[in-house]
Specification:
This protein is mainly α and 278 residues long. It is 76% helix and 0% strand. The longest helix has 31 residues.
Length: 278
């Protein structure tokens, strides 16, 4: 509660406190988000799909024990980053320990979230999964929804964190000084996020109705790779500053490429040639 109040009414103080825990926060977010990306990379649900990036992606999607591979790659990322941070900081415990603990807790938080989700979606009698969310066990669906909200919210928060939004807002005068002026800006920001979330929900529901996501077959892959790149950027930011232009545009570039490769250019070209006279 004090952190929320400080973020709204004293953004300058909040920025300073956030800077103190940023290494642990970035390590936590990188490990968690990488595991979310690994669900797609190693195809943990064994869904049938067409590979976006060719044979390598297809091979990774068919590996045995995909969940083990997810944990191994996340652990490797945490270990490698910790070693590099330790070397850079002369193995200072005050610098190294937050990175190690942050990454470890990120993996633990992901496993805990998935355990809660699996438990919430498990039918009470083991057979009728359609009954989940109805009757006396209706509250279980809300437990599952909370894991989804936590996962999505963490991704959004870490994206804004690596964009350095808190520091720039509090340091450049956009929010003004510590005071009530920040409350108005926070309300505008919350309203904008709310409108964007509603628009996105309506857009995706219409895409589902029109089978648009099935036609744009690589759009899901692009969204997954955005998460993978975000995790790598978070790990990298522990070692070197990330240019703002990279952070600001990587998602748009990846999604744009996924959209462009999903469009039926060949079919359009053949149709255009048939329509030409002669």
């Amino acid at each position: 509660a004090s952190s929320v109040g400080e973020a709204v009414f004293a953004p300058g103080s909040f920025s300073a406190h956030l800077a103190e825990v940023r290494p642990a926060l970035a390590a936590f977010g990188a490990a968690f988000i990488w595991l979310v990306f690994a669900e797609y990379l190693f195809n943990t649900d064994r869904a049938s799909r067409r590979s976006w990036l060719g044979r390598l992606e297809a091979r990774l999607a068919r590996v045995a024990r995909p969940r083990v591979w997810s944990l191994v790659t996340a652990g490797t990322g945490v270990l490698l980053t910790s070693v590099l941070v330790g070397v850079d900081a002369g193995w200072s415990p005050s610098t190294l320990l937050p990175v190690v603990l942050g990454g470890t807790i990120g993996i633990g938080a992901y496993l805990g979230s998935k355990r809660i989700a699996a438990w919430a979606l498990r039918s009470t009698d083991g057979t009728d999964t359609a009954s989940i969310g109805t009757g006396s066990g209706a509250w279980r669906i809300h437990a599952y929804a909370s894991t989804v909200v936590f996962e999505r919210g963490l991704v959004v928060f870490m994206l804004f964190e690596i964009l350095d939004g808190v520091y720039s807002l509090s340091g450049s005068g956009v929010l003004g000084g510590d005071g009530l002026g920040a409350l108005e800006q926070a309300a505008v920001a919350i309203a904008a996020i709310g409108v964007g979330a509603v628009f996105l929900a309506r857009l995706t529901s219409r895409l589902d109705e029109a089978s648009g996501l099935k036609r744009l077959r690589y759009l899901k892959a692009g969204a997954a790779y955005v998460l993978g790149i975000l995790a790598v950027l978070l790990w990298t930011s522990l070692l070197v500053p990330i240019p703002g232009v990279v952070v600001g545009w990587f998602g748009s570039v990846v999604i744009g490429l996924a959209l462009a490769t999903s469009l039926p250019w060949g079919a359009w070209w053949r149709r255009a040639r048939r329509s030409l006279p002669g």
